[in-house]
Predict the structure.
Amino acid sequence: MFVLNVCKRVFMKWLRGKKKVVSLSLLEIWILLILKAGGGWVGADKVMVIIFLLERVYGLAKVCFVPGRIPWSRDVANALNRLTSLGLAEALPQGGAYRLTENGRMAVERYSLSDLRLRYPYNLIKFFIGWNTDALADYIRVNYPEWTA
């Protein structure tokens, strides 16, 4: 009986030490790549706009958007909340901006940029991450006028 209890304690300790591997959707991976490219706090509006542009160019995530000053998506908002609850991203207390946590940085590094589904979108992300939100909104207004109010 003693040996069984010792084995059980060792096994439970081993289980606690194992990190859970969470599967992420392509949308969540794209968001992590945006936060990585941003290097710090990235506004939720900017994340929405860049995901909208990725969806228009690559069409891989199948995210539903609603037209507005900038296109808005409940899917992106839910993905940001999920990433925050998983501890991969953190939000400002006032809301509106996100950044990678250390766990998020390690999670995004698990994905290889040799995968074409990530390499080409990441190049577009790096192109647009330096733009301010108003410039991105103007870009959408010119190129996708049906999506702006």
Summary: The first strand starts at residue 42 and ends at 43. Residues 43 and 97 are 4 Å apart (CA to CA).
